[in-house]
Write a structure and sequence with these properties.
Blueprint lengths: L2 E6 L6 H12 L3 E3 L18 H6 L2 E2 L12 H16 L4 E5 L3 H8 L10 H26 L1 H4 L7 H14 L16 E7 L3 H17 L2 H7 L17 H5 L5 H22 L4 E3 L2 H12 L1
Parallel strand pairs: 1-4, 1-5, 2-3, 2-4, 5-6
Length: about 290
């Protein structure tokens, strides 16, 4: 059976160098599941692997498209599966690395597929919320999909809205679209770096300072015309837009980048806590070699 070694973890934890070590050891290639490193215009703020790192091992989905060509998790899974099939023609293993949990899950496990929501469905949900608030959304979902209503966090208005938009689009329950993903033909082995929090935050501080010294502000300014695109709604870029509009000083932008990076890292730690925690390359190599026999 073909296998995928997945390496996750929070920003600045050392995923890139670890993935390269693993890929070189097993003589294989790397697929990046970092949802911002896809875009060639975003080099500094995404901590893209250096030219030397990219040359050390074959990488895929790094700077291979423009910010004007957004790549959704579903589309990434389609393209990623095609690339994995190509890698598996000459390798039994592939490495997937990144901090974007949704994109990792889309590729390695699959996502539920929903219909494209219609404007009419959006309008109906907006009218219910405007007229009745959260209780109205709860009532509508209980009527449209009692099965999902019994499972969902009923206080989470955004989830209620999302489910209702799907229900109203084709008249089918939201729950009817769940758990229908296509099984993968490979086995995934999940690992994550989980450094001690104080050490991680120190690395984040140093990384942001390094980005600033290497031209992060100038890179963000060059992307000002694209600030509304989904790819630019991310830490390291979105904090510059108010500064460029003179809404707060430069020091505040830098402070927010560091703060938001720490918050993002904290969410990533939570997401990856179900992965097998490792500290270095030797642990993954030993465990995988035991699996491979």
């Amino acid at each position: 059976m073909k296998r995928v070694i997945v390496i996750g973890g929070p920003t600045a934890s050392g995923k890139t160098s670890l993935a390269i070590e693993v890929a070189r050891h097993f003589g294989t290639e790397i697929i990046s599941a970092d949802s911002r490193q896809f875009y060639r215009e975003m080099r500094i703020g995404t901590a893209r692997p250096s030219p030397e790192e990219l040359a050390a091992v074959s990488h895929h989905f790094v700077a291979d498209r423009s910010v004007t060509e957004p790549l959704s998790a579903g589309r990434f899974a389609e393209e990623g599966l095609h690339r994995l099939r190509e890698i598996f023609t000459s390798h039994d293993l592939a490495v997937v690395v990144g901090g974007s949990g949704l994109f990792i899950r889309a590729l390695c496990e699959g996502l539920d597929e929903f219909p494209e929501v219609t404007q009419e469905a959006r309008r109906r949900v907006e009218e219910i919320e405007a007229r009745e608030g959260l209780s109205g959304l709860q009532r509508a979902l209980r009527e449209a999909d009692p099965a999902y209503f019994g499972e969902v966090d009923q206080q989470n208005g955004r989830r209620l809205q999302r489910a209702l938009r799907v229900c109203f689009t084709e008249g089918l329950p939201y729950s009817s679209y769940l758990n229908k993903v296509t099984p993968r033909s490979f086995q995934s082995h999940y690992y994550a770096l989980a450094p001690e929090r104080a050490y991680l935050y120190q690395r984040i501080e140093k990384r942001v300072d390094h980005m600033l010294a290497n031209g992060l502000e100038e890179e963000a300014r060059s992307l000002l015309a694209y600030q509304q695109l989904p790819a630019l709604q991310t830490v390291g870029y979105q904090e510059w837009w108010p500064y460029f509009r003179e809404e707060y000083p430069r020091d505040r932008a830098i402070e927010l980048i560091k703060r938001n990076s720490r918050r993002y890292a904290k969410r990533q730690v939570t997401y990856f806590r179900d992965f097998r925690a490792v500290e270095d390359f030797t642990e993954i190599a030993a465990q995988m070699e035991a699996v491979l026999g």
